């Protein structure tokens, strides 16, 4: 099996403007053109390329000059390629299409069409736009563009039509290899996805990824308004440990491992939509968003819809040092038991702010794993709501807080499902809950930890059970100025301080 790193061996970006955009807000950034009078503009048809798709253009491309500043222009038409075009170590190169479609030859058994730079010989100042790659023939698909540049990468308006069903590399790989380099990928569309390798003649492990940002990426890369999925591996996979990737907008659907998989310090997702609403036979764990590692990962103003859930909405993995989920909406419809937001046990600090979770399935809306000690890296949940008809058939509680030192400030929970559906269970020591409303079918709040503080909370069972249960062995618990309908069930020997509470009967 081979992996997808893919390494076996003229519009120029205004870097100042783009760096300003990435370093500050995520507002749109502009690009400026340098003069191209000193570069050569080559119309490939004028140079002998066949625009009817009958004759391969690969020999024509190989014979053309590739001096720095060269532009290959593809007029409207269909172009057949039966070999890889490779260009490395350049400083200034463009591929520009005008309603141009490129078709891989049926008998071409290679894995690339355009390899522009490598991690050992990266290019610089690369611009690609306006090309469509046609995978509609049976057993067709390969890496159509692999671009590895030190700096100044701009890719716009590329598309793949037809399902990738060859079992070769996924269609795109983009890396900025220098730590100070920058690039942008805009309006790249590959909605038809790819087939699992076991159903193809190829040998890629599992199957192809749609857009890969590999371990060789060390700079900063925007991914803007792309349409991705469904892919058998990942839709967008950013596997860098040292680089930064910023996803801005776009639609990501139904990839098997993850639709957006992100890592790297300060990598983030903004204004995106992620949907899981269809499963193929091999789609066994379709996570929407997975944060793999790095500090200050941020998911903001993003909508996640699990309409046919068989994986989690947002997973925060162990190597993440600090993550923030902010102003997001997550909807999980009825289906297989799952979790909306899951924090792994060794992940660092996590903030969940101003977000809405509609959870209509068995499982947890929030599952916070981690050390149970009161000095654990905290999870802060602020101004967040959990609603829906989730039931208790696979985990009674909508929120399971195994981590200590968590803060739930103005968390509101309403879960109306049956099977003893509850609101929150506190298992980590030193947690605080304040100013939240908890309304669930069964007991809304269950405490099984020490040094828990409740202040200004309201808890009501829709079936008339007690509003709170404190389990045997809980000590140092404080409950103040709260409204607990039908009182509190102290289940065993507990140590609780009460002050200024109200216990209305139903």
TrEMBL record:
<dbReference type="InterPro" id="IPR012334">
    <property type="entry name" value="Pectin_lyas_fold"/>
</dbReference>
<dbReference type="InterPro" id="IPR011050">
    <property type="entry name" value="Pectin_lyase_fold/virulence"/>
</dbReference>
<dbReference type="InterPro" id="IPR006311">
    <property type="entry name" value="TAT_signal"/>
</dbReference>
<protein>
    <submittedName>
        <fullName>Uncharacterized protein</fullName>
    </submittedName>
</protein>
């Amino acid at each position: 099996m081979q992996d997808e790193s893919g390494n076996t061996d003229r519009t120029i970006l205004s870097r100042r403007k783009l760096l300003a955009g990435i370093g500050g807000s995520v507002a749109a950034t502009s690009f400026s053109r340098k003069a191209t009078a000193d570069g050569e503009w080559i119309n490939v048809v004028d140079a002998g390329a066949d625009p009817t798709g009958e004759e391969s253009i690969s020999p024509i491309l190989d014979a053309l000059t590739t001096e720095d500043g060269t532009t290959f222009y593809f007029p409207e038409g269909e172009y057949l390629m039966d070999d890889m075009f490779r260009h490395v170590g350049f400083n200034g190169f463009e591929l520009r299409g005008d309603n141009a479609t490129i078709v891989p030859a049926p008998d071409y058994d290679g894995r690339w069409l355009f390899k522009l730079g490598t991690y050992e010989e990266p290019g610089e100042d690369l611009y690609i736009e306006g090309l469509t790659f046609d995978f509609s023939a049976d057993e067709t698909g390969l890496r159509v563009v692999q671009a590895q540049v030190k700096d100044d990468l701009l890719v716009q308006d590329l598309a793949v039509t037809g399902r990738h069903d060859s079992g070769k590399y996924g269609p795109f790989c983009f890396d900025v290899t220098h730590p100070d380099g920058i690039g942008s990928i805009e309006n790249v569309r590959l909605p038809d996805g790819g087939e699992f390798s076991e159903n193809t003649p190829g040998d890629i492990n599992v199957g192809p990824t749609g857009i890969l940002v590999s371990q060789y990426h060390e700079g900063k890369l925007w991914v803007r308004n792309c349409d991705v999925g469904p892919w058998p591996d990942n839709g967008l996979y950013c596997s860098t440990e040292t680089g930064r990737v910023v996803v801005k907008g776009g639609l990501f659907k139904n990839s098997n491992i993850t639709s957006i998989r992100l890592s790297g310090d300060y990598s983030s997702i903004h204004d995106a939509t992620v949907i899981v609403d269809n499963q193929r036979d091999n789609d066994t764990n379709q996570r929407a968003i997975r944060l793999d590692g790095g500090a200050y990962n941020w998911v903001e103003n993003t909508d996640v819809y699990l309409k046919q859930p068989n994986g989690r909405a947002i997973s925060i993995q162990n190597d993440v040092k600090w993550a923030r989920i902010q102003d997001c909406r997550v909807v999980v419809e009825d289906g297989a038991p799952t979790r909306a937001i899951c924090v792994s046990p060794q992940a660092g600090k996590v903030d969940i702010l101003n977000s809405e979770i509609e959870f209509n399935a068995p499982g947890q809306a929030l599952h916070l794993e981690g050390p149970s000690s009161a000095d654990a890296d905290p999870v802060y949940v602020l101004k967040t709501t959990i609603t829906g008809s989730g039931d208790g058939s696979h985990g009674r509680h909508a929120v399971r807080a195994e981590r200590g030192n968590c803060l739930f400030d103005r968390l509101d929970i309403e879960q109306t499902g049956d099977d003893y559906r509850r609101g929150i269970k506190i298992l980590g020591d030193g947690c605080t809950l304040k100013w939240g409303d908890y309304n669930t079918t069964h007991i809304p709040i269950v405490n099984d930890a020490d040094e828990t503080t409740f202040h200004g909370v309201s808890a009501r069972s829709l079936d008339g059970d007690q509003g709170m249960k404190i389990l045997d062995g809980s000590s140092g618990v404080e409950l103040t100025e709260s409204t607990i309908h039908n009182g509190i069930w102290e289940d065993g020997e507990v140590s609780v301080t009460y002050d200024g509470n109200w216990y209305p009967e139903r």
